[in-house]
Amino acid sequence: MKKVFDHIGVAVRDLDSSIDFYINILGGDLIDRYRSEAIGVESEIAIIDVKGTRTELLMPTNNTTSPIARFIKQKGKGVHHIAYQVANLDKAIAELKENGIRVMEDTRRVNKHGRRLIYLNPADTEGTIIEYCDYLENSELHG
């Protein structure tokens, strides 16, 4: 199945400062800023577009349960994940499993913009957190 780059997720400690850098230094546009307290997310998120390339800035809102907080504690701030858009998330997951690649079922969700997503198990991806995603019809952020 064909995959195309969708976005990169960056773990940050100070969302306002990071937004300022992406807008004023890199020339990006703030597409959205929102807070998600969903279990397994617990982050404030800013979506930045720099000439057609999307970056999600992720700041933890709960320093004990947020996976972004755990990531920053273990590895520091910086690139958290790389996301690839697929035509059909369910079929892509089945293809991964056929190839012995595990997914992290507890990360499967639909975000506020209609993006269905799941993370692949980093133990099967050389340590890189990879997100697979597709978009529901009529999503305002549909790539």
UniProtKB/TrEMBL annotation:
GO biological process: L-methylmalonyl-CoA metabolic process
CDD domains: MMCE (cd07249)
Span of domain VOC: 4-135
Keyword Metal-binding belongs to the record: yes
Matching Pfam families: Glyoxalase_4 (PF13669)
Keyword terms of this UniProt record: Metal-binding
Keyword Nucleus on entry: no
Listed InterPro entries: Glyas_Bleomycin-R_OHBP_Dase (IPR029068), MeMalonyl-CoA_epimerase (IPR017515), MMCE/EMCE_epimerase (IPR051785), VOC_core (IPR037523)
Spans traversing the lipid bilayer: none
GO function term, MF aspect, one: methylmalonyl-CoA epimerase activity
Family, per entry: Belongs to the methylmalonyl-CoA epimerase family.
Protein name: Methylmalonyl-CoA epimerase
Source species of the chain: Gracilibacillus kekensis
Organism phylogeny: Bacteria, Bacillati, Bacillota, Bacilli, Bacillales
